[in-house]
Design goal:
The complex is a heterodimer. By secondary structure, chain A is mostly helical. Helix content of chain A is 61%, strand content 6%. Chain A is elongated, with a radius of gyration of 53 Å. Chain A starts with a helix and ends with a strand. In chain B, 60% of the residues lie in helices and 10% in strands. Chain B has a three-stranded antiparallel β-sheet with strand order 3-5-4. In chain B, strands 1-2 form a two-stranded antiparallel sheet. In chain B, a hairpin with a 7-residue loop joins strand 1 and strand 2. In chain B, helix 1 packs across helix 2, helix 4 runs antiparallel to helix 6 and helix 5 crosses helix 7. The longest helix of chain B has 31 residues. The chains are: A mainly alpha, B mainly alpha. At the A-B interface, helix 7 and helix 9 of A face strand 1, strand 2, helix 4, helix 8 and helix 9 of B. Chain A: This is Phosphoenolpyruvate carboxylase. Chain A: It comes from Azotobacter beijerinckii.
Chain lengths: 405, 213
């Protein structure tokens, strides 16, 4: 018998493994359409009780047991189901304990052992279920009901969790340990299972549920506070809209002014720099350096907003020649007209030019050098002067003469 | 260099609201009752004391209040209350705009971040928000005269930073954080609500039910 069961179980699990893809699709999207599965596969999955059709014509859904298995294994937030049915679990436990006692009494030890194993399984799964419920509640608290979007939904989820906690606590109150002790009687195995083990689990679970309840209330308070603030803001706007000339009363003038409005006047303004304190010199210099840097930045800032660049015909303009340049031109013309060498200083004297003689000579040399190459070739410029008496290689120009080459 | 205590006293005397977001070190310092007592003793000489928003152990925002109220103190406090009241409607409208544009359940509070660029693009894309922003920015509190959404929103945020409701931790980035002064603002509204029996929350509740029907 147990061999058969083993084989059948292995076959069922293989079935699950082989069709893992469609099963996960069904888990995530809630259902699988008929077209997605081959008819043979579909038939096998339905026959094995993995998928079922809730009503004719509907898509295939996962069976509750398979879904619960996945939720538990994946620690899925959507798993909000909490089994608070302590009464029926307790009744089963008591019945099995009675079977066990009877079998022991009649000396049927094989049957008694089988009942004990069954009983252990029930008690353990009951404790495990309690632990699971508490874990689920904690995971919801820890992400602050993050799986729902709006604040109102969070408040509803919180209320659901609170009602579940109260149900669990009410269920746990049903467990009467003196009655269980009586049921267990003198049998050591039963006492250990029903009294010691169960009591330990239940009391730790109760404690934890108390903490959970506290946290849930705290969270609810926070949610309500946030919601209250939003309402406060909206209410204020509505109020101001309805009574546009509304002004709050002068509460600050009342003898019992609330602490909230008691705002002291700002007192301290920044202190000034003490430039005579040499210990601060380094910092002050650094500050001064920063000021300069800022000024440079400011100068560069307007560059970014340079005016629009327009490509246009270049406006014609005339360079006004300076009088000294005109005088040099006149001098050159005189050289050309006379065809003889003309000394620069003589010309300067003859014309009584207003500039310094040295400036005049420099301008003449400059004017000569500035001529285009072919015109310059027509002239010859001779410096008139002597070598420096002390420093060789220096030549002092006293005058220059220009003639046609 | 100033000690931690000195810094805290200086901040308080400057009229700052100390919260976790604006100055975590000072906030931690004041969270310790012994430190707070020391600061309080020091401020007593200046007829001031450390006040908190919310009472007891859950106090999260600290500021400086008068210890004894004489004539001149009352005048200052009265003026400040009038200032706060004048700014209430623009601030409330702005808070609701940010909340609605961000599709959030919770209004802005201490430590909540606002990304200006995201807010800007949402407001620009939604005509109703654009109108709302234009109205808000023209209040005297914000005083914007610009007609562009970008300039309006920047002016509003700049003003809010100056007033101490917002903080810009990194000047390179357009991310702002709410400060504890916002919590103070909520408390002021709540106080006015209770003191004058305006029943603001019930009114909002009724209005939202009315709009659902």
């Amino acid at each position: 018998m147990s061999g058969n069961l083993h084989q059948a179980g292995v076959r069922f699990l293989r079935q699950l493994g082989r069709h893992a893809e469609p099963i996960m699709d069904a888990y995530l999207s809630g259902s699988v359409p008929d077209q997605a599965l081959e008819p043979a596969v579909e038939e096998r999955l339905v026959k094995d009780g993995i998928l079922y059709r809730p009503e004719p014509g509907a898509d295939l859904h996962l069976r509750r047991a398979v879904r619960a298995l996945l939720e538990e294994a994946l620690r899925d937030d959507r798993n909000r189901q909490i089994d608070a049915n302590t009464g029926s679990a307790l009744a089963t436990v008591k019945t099995l304990a009675a079977h066990y006692k009877e079998a022991r009494h009649q000396g049927d030890y094989a049957a008694a052992d089988a009942y004990l194993v069954d009983l252990k399984e029930h008690v353990y799964s009951f404790s495990e279920g309690l632990g699971h419920s508490v874990r689920v509640l904690w995971s919801r608290i820890n992400n602050e009901f993050g799986y729902v979007g709006s604040l109102a939904a969070k408040i509803r989820e919180n209320e659901l969790a609170q009602s579940q906690v109260s149900e669990l606590l009410a269920g746990l109150e049903l467990i009467d340990f003196s009655e269980l002790a009586e049921t267990a009687g003198e049998l050591r195995e039963l006492r250990r299972l029903l009294v010691t083990g169960l009591q330990r689990n239940v009391s730790s679970c109760c404690q934890e549920l108390g903490v959970v309840q506290g946290r849930l209330l705290e969270l609810l308070g926070r949610f309500r506070k946030i919601q209250g603030r939003t309402r406060l803001l909206r209410g204020w706007l509505l109020h101001v809209e309805q009574q546009p000339d509304y002004r709050p009363g002068s509460h600050a003038a009342l003898p019992q002014m609330p602490q909230l409005l008691n705002l002291a006047e700002p007192l301290i303004s920044p202190a000034a720099v003490n430039i005579h304190d040499s210990s601060q010199e380094a910092e002050l210099l650094a500050l001064a350096a920063q000021i300069r840097a800022q000024r440079e930045e400011r100068a560069s800032a307007p560059l970014a907003e340079a005016g629009e660049l327009v490509l246009d015909a270049v406006e014609s303009f005339e360079v006004q020649p300076s009088p000294i340049q005109l005088a040099v031109q006149e001098y050159l013309c005189e050289v050309i007209v006379s065809g003889k060498p003309v000394s620069g200083l003589t010309w300067w004297h003859a014309r009584a030019l207003p500039w310094d003689p040295e400036t005049w000579l420099y301008q003449v040399i400059g004017g000569y050098e500035a001529l285009p190459d072919e015109q310059r070739a027509c002239f010859q410029l001779d410096p008139d002067g002597e070598a420096h008496p002390v420093f060789s290689g220096n030549f002092i120009v006293r005058d220059i003469s220009l003639w046609l080459a | 260099m100033l000690s931690n205590k000195g810094k805290v006293i200086e901040r308080l005397l400057q009229g700052a609201f100390i919260c976790r977001t604006s100055d975590e070190e000072a906030w931690r310092f004041l969270k310790n009752p012994a430190n707070r007592e020391q600061v309080d003793d020091y401020l007593a000489t200046l007829n001031r004391s450390v006040a908190t928003v919310g009472g007891g152990a859950e106090a999260e925002v600290f500021y400086c209040a008068y210890r004894q109220l004489g004539e001149s103190e009352r005048r200052v406090v009265g003026q400040q209350f009038r200032d706060v009241c004048n700014g209430l409607t623009p601030l409330v409208e702005w808070l609701l705009l940010v909340q609605e544009a961000g599709a959030q359940d919770a209004p802005l509070t201490e430590g909540s971040p606002i990304r200006l660029n995201e807010l800007l693009s949402i407001v620009e894309d939604t005509p109703a928000f654009r109108e709302q922003l234009a109205r808000i920015s023209r209040y005297r509190l914000f005083g914007s005269t610009s007609s562009s959404v970008d300039a309006q929103i920047k002016q509003v945020f700049k003003k809010l930073c100056e007033l101490g409701y917002l903080l810009r931790p990194n000047p390179e980035k357009q991310i702002y954080l709410g400060t504890g002064k916002l919590d103070y603002l909520y408390e002021v509204i709540r106080f006015i609500d209770e003191a004058e029996g305006l029943a603001l929350e019930e009114r909002a509740e009724l209005a939202s039910q009315g709009s659902l029907l």
